[in-house]
Amino acid sequence: MKKIPLGRSGIEVSEWCLGTMTYGSQTPEDDAHRQLDMALDAGIDFLDAAEMYPVNPVKAETVGRTEEFIGNWIEKSGKRDAYRIATKAAGPNPGWARDGKGYDGGNIREIVEGSLKRLKTDVIDLYQLHWPERGSYHFRQYWSFDPSGQDPERTRDHMDGVLATLKDMVAEGKIRAFGLSNESAWGTTRWIDRAEAQGGPRVASIQNEYSLLSRLYDTDMAEMAVNEDVLLLAYSPLACGYLTGKYQDGIPEARALRSTAIWAGARPTG
């Protein structure tokens, strides 16, 4: 398996990453553990999780379950060092995590500690912010996203607070690298600027949707990534299975309804 650098972090990861967002709903724990073993056998040493999985659909009672499944595998197998582990903090949400509260300088340490406990590890290799606090055009919000009400000073203060805590956690050895998800080019460069201003962890990666049916990244995000050495972690590269052809005969009604609910419910708010 080819290895690639994770931005400027000094970490190398396999070119392919194991996604785990269904662990705990569509994927029971024994199957999840088999997948973790099979990925290693195939040369994959990079896995991605989040505190607010699994889907589909997201439920308050399943928040954290994906990380718990991975943590149980680590405890059982003793193979923590076999994987570079990435996970994410949820932003503002309909109430599934922290009664809807996202992350800030005051609670990001608690959020990280929760993930460490569920993953049964002392360090997270890549810690990511799942979506911006200020809102986002991702999750199919291209036509409704309106940034005109944003306060750039508030955004800067928010970034500074988060980065100050993450800087301390990097020094403590609890986080190795920092990344973003569902961000814009402006947001990513601001995170980089604020990190450089205070010596915080620099953005190593950006996890955004990318497939033959979703190529927004090829515009300003690609330019940002090239100039700032930010690695793309592409999610939904097969457009949630659509590009495999499995929906040629249509989408089952129950699944279509669940999918609609997920996109509506996961909508980040400013």
Structure, described:
With 270 residues, the protein is an alpha/beta fold. It has one domain (3-265): NADP-dependent oxidoreductase domain (TIM Barrel), CATH 3.20.20. The protein is built from seven helices and nine strands, in the order E-E-E-H-E-H-E-H-E-H-E-H-E-H-E-H. The strands form two sheets. A seven-stranded parallel sheet has the order 3-4-5-6-7-8-9, with helices on one face. It has a two-stranded antiparallel sheet with strand order 1-2. Helix 2 (65-77) crosses helix 3 and helix 5 packs parallel to helix 6. The radius of gyration is 18 Å and the shape is globular. It starts with a strand and ends in a 5-residue tail after the last helix.
Which of globular, elongated, flat, extended, rod-shaped describes the shape?
globular
Please count the helical segments. Answer: 7
Would you tell me the overall average pLDDT? 92
CATH overall fold name: TIM Barrel
CATH-derived architecture: Alpha-Beta Barrel
Give the percentage of residues in beta strands: 5-15%
Q: Mind telling me the CATH superfamily name?
A: NADP-dependent oxidoreductase domain
Q: Note the main sheet.
A: 7 strands, parallel
Helix proportion range: 25-40%
**CATH class type:** Alpha Beta
Number of strands: 9
Q: Tell me the radius of gyration.
A: 18 Å
Which structural class matches the secondary elements?
alpha/beta
End-to-end CA span = 40 Å
Strand order, biggest sheet? 3-4-5-6-7-8-9
In the residues, how many domains can be counted?
1
Low-confidence stretches: 257-270
- SSE run: EEEHEHEHEHEHEHEH
